[in-house]
Design a protein that fits this description.
alpha/beta, five-stranded mixed β-sheet, three-stranded mixed β-sheet, 8 strands, 12% helix
């Protein structure tokens, strides 16, 4: 494929996922972090102990600030997980496990 063809690339139709039970539309190829940012959500985790809000810090999967629960699997890095139709995202408190 010629790289110039990619300039005219258009995403496919949006699909629906949920964030804490609320439906949001997502464009194909987006990560959890990108989808949440597009919805105006900048924090989706609170730290253990102090409960401080966290979201994306590095954006490349090196740190662990953007942890989120996806499809009941806690501690997923929101900047790395690509969404699929029907995925269920939940904000995460502390470790993401029932402590």
């Amino acid at each position: 494929m010629n790289p110039l063809d990619l300039v005219r690339a258009e995403p496919g139709p949006a699909f629906t996922v949920t964030l804490d039970g609320r439906s949001i539309d997502v464009l194909p190829g987006r990560t959890v972090a990108a989808a949440l940012w597009a919805e105006g959500v900048t924090s989706w985790r609170s730290t253990r102990g102090t409960g401080r809000p966290r979201g994306v810090f590095c954006g490349i999967g090196v740190c662990f600030d953007c942890l989120v629960t996806v499809n009941d699997c806690p501690n997923q890095r929101a900047c790395l997980v690509r969404l699929a139709p029907g995925d269920a995202i939940r904000t995460q408190e502390g470790t993401g496990h029932d402590d």
